[in-house]
Amino acid sequence: MERMTHVTDDSQPLTQPARRRSGTLLVPTAALTWGLQFAFFNPALALVLAGPFGATDAQIGLALALYNVSGFVCSLVIPMIADRRGSYLTAIIWCGIATLPLTAVLGFSSLLPVAMVALVLLGGPASVGSSLLFAHLRASGASPRTVINTRAVVSFAWVAGPPIATLLVGWFGDRSVLVAIAAVSLVGLATTVMLRMRQRSPEHAVRKTVDASRDEVAYPIVAVVAIAVAFVALQATNYVVTTVMALFVVNTLQLPVFWAGIALAVAAGAEIPALMIIGRLSRRFSSLTLIAAGCVVGTAFYVLMAVVNGPVLLLVAQLLNAVFFAIVAGVGLTFFLEIIPRPGLASGLFTNIRRIGAIISGGIIALAAVIGGYHNMFLVCAALAVFALVVIGIAAGLTRRASTRGGQSA
What we know:
Helix content: over 70%
Shape: globular
Mean pLDDT: 83
Largest sheet: none
Order of helices and strands: HHHHHHHHHHHHHHH
Number of strands: 0
């Protein structure tokens, strides 16, 4: 049987090097625009609600809760619909279109109930584009390295976005960032449309071709659930660090608050090269091996944070934090795309695991007052990283046994 033409991220044959080179920037550009869109939106939303809409703290909390619930539901439902139809780029376009009326409502209305309705009906769908982009990469046969490198672009957007949004608000007012979000969304829409025009074959057909050519281990549902639980624990520990860093620096280390900003900046900045390096390593080591290594690095980071007593050790620890989160975010995403057959469901589930981790992190932070402060809280995070390592090891064992039984029965 004649071997089928290999398909790249933008679904172009390798026999067209000029067109392939011209399309290599489309996926990174789409990733950058989607990353910037929500790196702008998240820090600006509370400011917009408090300023032009005059929302109280309680009303802001309610609006954010409704928005996050909508995002949670849409992150599962929309990718599952895209899986069924085999068209991720089309779904991304509709999500991008939802951003435009959302920014219009927030920009021109002054009624808080109208803003809340817009956040639920439009904000949730508009937040799904990034996870759908990774589903498209998987469906188009992208390698784990390509997925991780694309994730690095999103990380760059998340590092650059909040400072830019803050500057825009400071210079031009609260609603100016909404104009920037709309502009970035238009660029993302144009890029996605170009990707869609370049795509000759339906994504579901490409996915079947790619999956048929790979000899991947089938993970039993128990193993998938166990891995999901492990990643919830890992994501929760990351949220803990981000949330309490300022309080830890000021109250426990007795340092000026700017050291917290420097520490978070070091971790965020080092995450991007860490993702690039891990992308290279993904060609030599399995995802499970890299994730296990990430759990070990995470454990070392939290143990080090438990003994930090000054700014130097604090900054050194952030390098471990960068490697740890790069593995959790980058390799974790590719791993979920490997073990769950439907790319949309896989990427949507991974997105929601991060949301669940954020919720659980609140309980971990609350323990700090009971167990003797933030140093002991970091030891709890170290224990959770060890727990995740053990659970992932058990899941791997279950998978090996299931694969062995399947081979014997065959």
